[in-house]
Amino acid sequence: AYEDMHRVRAEARGLVHLEQSPERLRVETELRGAVGRGEFRVHLQPQIDLASGRVVAVEALARWYHPEMGLVSPGLFVPIAEDSGIIEEIGEYILREASRVVAGWREQGMDLELAVNVSAVQLNKPDFAELVHKVLMESGLPCDRLVVEVTESQVMSHVAAGNGNLHRLRELGVGISVDDFGTGYSSLAQLRRLPVTEVKVDQAFTAQLTDEGSSAFVAGIVGLGQGLGLRVVAEGVETPAQLQALQDMGCHRAQGYLLGRPAEPAAVLDALLAGTPVPASVAV
Ligand code: C2E
Ligand code: MG
Ligand code: MG
Ligand code: MG
């Protein structure tokens, strides 16, 4: 099993091509029913408001603990879960579990927004917006506390499907974020037709913030976001210099290892109450 995972990881990194390999099929087989067997967990990563320095939101990130393979990263299982349709079940679980946790914190007086990653596979189901509404009602999290993140490269496939889910979510008060912004091929004209409320600067650009040309690129995204009235969140903030540069540009929010690692909800709550970043020791 260990060698299998090694090969599939290599495939995910594009080192070998194993379209319908037995290894990939094994992951798909193991993914089926994994939610039901309780192998999935939600981890949360804080987002900081750069004007106040306060934690204002958490992003939910899926974690798969397989009994033999151990912790399998989303970079590996998400594409397979999307191809096989299993992402629907995983996505619903993550939304349900994360909104239950954040609604519980809210009852204790901690009012945070929740960001949840959503696949185009989910978005292209005609009743997706209604499902989100139902899950939020059951968990008690107000609709305006949720933000759905769709990657820039997937948002256009939703436009093609034309089922209006994003507009319906927006009507409910849910925020719409374009994730990994700057890496896709959306045009401004296309973006303007969508009810987007936020863009997330991809971590690849944040990483290059100290070199001049790339700083101009991030500054351009921040300026574009401000001009369009969108909130701008920078991902992958790892150094104080990056944080300072983003603050100087007027970026609204930041997320990254410097400010807190993704971790299980109890550890995130402890760190929030103590006012400290989530330390690497408790984070995965
Ligand atoms: P994403 O939504 O862009 O999430 C950010 C990723 O960057 C996460 O990786 C996070 O752990 C990582 N990260 C956060 N801060 C830093 C930092 O300072 N430095 C670096 N190098 N990385 C940082 P993760 O958790 O492995 O997730 C990878 C991707 O998998 C996510 O990218 C998202 O596209 C997808 N994903 C994760 N959970 C879900 C889910 O529940 N549903 C769907 N559809 N996709 C998910
Ligand atoms: Mg995301
Ligand atoms: Mg991203
Ligand atoms: Mg990403």
Automatic annotation (TrEMBL):
Residues 24-276 form the EAL domain. It comes from the Bacteria. This is Diguanylate cyclase (GGDEF) domain-containing protein.
